Amino acid sequence: MSLIQTRPRSITSAFACGTVADAMDTAGPQVCDDMTVEVALSVMAGARAGHLLVCDDSGLWTGLVTQPQLAAVRDGSAYTDRVQLRDLNGGRGPYTSPVATLAEAERTMRCGQVDVLPVVDEHGSALGVLAVAR
Fold first, then answer.
1. Distance between CA atoms of 37 and 105, rounded to whole angstroms?
2. Neighbours of 110 (CB within 10 A)
3. CA quadruple 82, 86, 89, 95: dihedral positive or negative?
4. Number of folded domains in the chain?
5. Is residue 46 in some structural domain?
């Protein structure tokens, strides 16, 4: 899942010239927002993924959830087995366009303090993700 490596200050000209579409990974697991937290954790484990892209009934991207986020919800005092992904607070979070430059995406990731950035087209469909190489 390597895409770009963030650097504290400047980036190389190769990163400045490339677009997100050139570097993104395919979207990976996408789930509907009516899925329960428990099922989402199972899907994530089965896919060996650290995140899930969440879509609405129309297939449009509504957010991204990570294993630590879902585990925190499950371990919370208000948790029931009926909590759906659409019930989670947190909003859509940062995302990027496939035509954005890698430098722009890097800034978005750094400012949003995220390791995974959804790539969303102009219609709201998730195309893939940009992830920090570890």
1. 29
2. 13
3. positive
4. 1
5. yes
